[in-house]
Amino acid sequence: MNLIISILFLIVCTVVGSQFTSTGFPTKVLSSNSPWNIPIGNNPSVEPLSTVMVNKIKNSLAQEGLSTDFQLHYNKWTAPIHLVNTSLPVNRIKIFQPQGEGYHETVDPLGLKVITNLPVLTSFNPDPMADGHMIVFDTNLKVFHEFSRFKWVNSTTAEATRYDTFSYNNNGTYPALVPGSRWWMKGVRGSGAPFIAGLIRYDEIQRGELDHAIAFAGPINRQKSFSSSSWSYELCTPVSCRTDGWVIGNDTVMEGQRIQLNPSYNINSLPPKARLIAQALQTYGGYMVDNSGDFGIYFENLITSNPSGTSLWESQYGSDLSTLYNIPITQFRILTCSNIIAK
Ligand SMILES: *[C@@H]1O[C@H](CO)[C@@H](O)[C@H](O)[C@H]1NC(C)=O
Ligand SMILES: *[C@@H]1O[C@H](CO)[C@@H](O)[C@H](O)[C@H]1NC(C)=O
Ligand SMILES: *[C@@H]1O[C@H](CO)[C@@H](O)[C@H](O)[C@H]1NC(C)=O
Ligand SMILES: *[C@@H]1O[C@H](CO)[C@@H](O)[C@H](O)[C@H]1NC(C)=O
Fold first, then answer.
1. For the residues 68-73, what does the mean pLDDT come to?
2. Residue to mutate (ligand 1; options 13, 85, 86, 143; most atoms within 8 A of CB)
3. C-alpha neighbours within 13 Å on the C-beta side of residue 105
4. 130 CB contacts (<8 Å, ≥6 apart)?
5. Is 271 close to ligand 3, i.e. is its CB under 6 Å away?
6. Where would one find the signal peptide in this protein (predicted)?
7. What is the Cα–Cα distance from 265 to 324, expressed in whole angstroms?
8. How far apart are CA 231 and CA 35, in angstroms?
9. First and final C-alpha spacing in the chain
10. Which DSSP string do the residues of 19-59 spell out, in sequence order?
11. Helices 312-321, 272-283: crossing angle, 10 deg rounding
12. 250 CA to middle of ligand 4, Å?
């Protein structure tokens, strides 16, 4: 009898609860109509300047003496994901904005520059580099909390330059450059996109399921096409709602713009986990969401204290995933942005 009940319970859990892993984290992050969860489809429109854009990235890296290989952000300049269960009593903290700027209206409507009552355990730490990104997921309320430049002051107070919160099934997009709003405070990355969007997670690589677009960083993201343009910024919506692109030229990639691994690039000889990622890069591609000193993609940070230490990514999948460095960046192409916003 107990066995039958257990089996029934298991079946019900598998059918009803399959949106969440045993840790309470969603198997699919963001809604199914989010641009992060929609495949590219056949014969997308490719930017007329795509080849020029990718070569310009490659040349700019070479000129700076930097690697022109495809890069993986996994132990620094990315973000860890911490889980907290608020159906139990948990540590609550206050964050303040150290630059004296109010947080975005959606999280700090009164412009107090302070946000209270956030469920952050004292054991949670951000990415070790200057951007200090950190993702906290509340498995009880199913909401994300994201921070940039997070720094502990004491066990109940921290500073953070940006903060955002949203439900796990939100579509991950925000209105761009909204006049009259502090739009530059929205979201925790340069493009305003959620950090969890497009982040490659350990649990999905373990399961062998990677069904979404991937977050990209680039070294020469666009500020605007021409110095004569009457506006200051241009960006590609809906993925991006602001931009920290700084290069002028119609041969640069906009933040929010979609990138695809050439679908005819042969990925069959790659080992299983690298092939899973390469397949996602062909099927879903990715979106340019931040500046970086390289051209690469983001993995969740599994080691937050010592960036030169060994992470699970290296010990479990290092020899497999390191084959991704061999994909020539000239095998990526830039897709046409159908909705540019300028301001
Ligand atoms: C959160 O804690 C509650 C109360 O102990 C428990 O019932 C629930 O299963 C926990 N959720 C997760 C995802 O661990
Ligand atoms: C933590 O730091 C804040 C800001 O400096 C201060 O107001 C608060 O009293 C401190 N709390 C504790 C428990 O030390
Ligand atoms: C995302 O959701 C918001 C609010 O729910 C909606 O206004 C917007 O049109 C949606 N955007 C996309 C790209 O689905
Ligand atoms: C890009 O800008 C150059 C001038 O700087 C112009 O000649 C060219 O037509 C533009 N190309 C596209 C595709 O807009």
1. 98
2. 85
3. 8
4. 149
5. no
6. 1-18
7. 13
8. 26
9. 66
10. TB-TTS-BSS-S-TTSGGGS---SSPPBPTTHHHHHHHHHH
11. 80
12. 6
Using DSSP, state whether 60 is helix, strand or coil: helix
Q: Which tens digits make up the pLDDT trace of 84-127? A: 999 999 999 999 999 999 999 999 999 999 999 999 999 999 99
Q: For ligand 2, atom 8, name the residue with the nearest CA.
A: 157
Atom of ligand 3 at shortest range from CA of 33: 14
Q: Are the C-beta atoms of 115 and 157 separated by less than 8 Å?
A: no
Atom 7 (ligand 2) nearest CA: 157
Query: Is 22 a pocket residue for ligand 1 (Cβ < 6 Å)?
Result: no
Burial of 147 (0-12, 13-18, 19+ CB in 10 A): buried
| pLDDT for 18 | 67
Give yes or no for a contact between 173 and 238, defined as CB atoms under 8 angstroms apart: yes
Question: With bands split at pLDDT 50, 70 and 90, how would you rate the model's confidence at 2?
Answer: low
What pairs with residue 222 in β-bridges? 247
